[in-house]
Amino acid sequence: MQQILHRLSSQDLSFPPINQALTEPSGLLAVGGDLSPQRIVNAYSQGIFPWFSEGDPILWWSPDPRAILPLKELRINRSLRKFLKKSPYQVTLNQAFDEVIEYCSDAPFRNEETWIVPSMMWAYQQLHRQGIAHSVEVWHDSQLVGGLYGIAIGGFFSGESMFYTAENASKVALIALQRHLMKQNIGFIDCQIQNPFLQSMGSREILREDFSKLLKHAIQCDISDDCWLPKTLKLEN
């Protein structure tokens, strides 16, 4: 059966059904549109996210399979547990979003071209101002040494990127986020696409159809009003 790459209109915020995504490249659903907050929220609510490089048109994806991290399955190995007991880091929530996304766009460990191009950075900063995009920050002696950011809709959290400039800092950010989300009875983090780091921390792949069911339920979950207010995060269970 012939597959078609859908082209989006800047006047219409709708997306085609995710089961119409291409098999090659896997998960590519549509091209075009814009990065307005309304369109991005509409996309994530359906399991779709933007991902493209500098100079490319806006590309929208819904991969199959989909990577998720069930929060109860987060893996903390022996050496990391030992590190956490003596960790010199402080962890905060939503206190330095702009700095986190800037670090993520130019993370020193990343060899490939970044997808966090200026238009993407601006879009997610606007989403942060609206209380939809959030960051976790890891500090050492008042210096930002690690962090992550993502999108939250109801009880659904989709991780976008992370960075570190000091030992285990991105892992500490992920662990702190896991502890925080579990207090809200949130069951998983959407990791979008599997990679070795996420897999080592416990992420796994599920069918897109199964992910859609989890997504629908998660978005409808109620969370506390103060869930995403700026605060210090604890690493304890």
From TrEMBL:
Give the UniProt subcellular location, in the record's own words: Cytoplasm
The record ties this protein, via SUPFAM superfamilies, to: Acyl-CoA N-acyltransferases (Nat)
- Leader sequence range is none
Q: Which GO terms describe its cellular component?
A: cytoplasm
Query: What functional role does this protein have?
Result: Functions in the N-end rule pathway of protein degradation where it conjugates Leu, Phe and, less efficiently, Met from aminoacyl-tRNAs to the N-termini of proteins containing an N-terminal arginine or lysine.
Family recorded in the similarity comment: Belongs to the L/F-transferase family.
Official protein name in the record:
Leucyl/phenylalanyl-tRNA--protein transferase
Tell me what organism the protein belongs to: Thalassotalea litorea
Q: Which gene encodes it?
A: aat
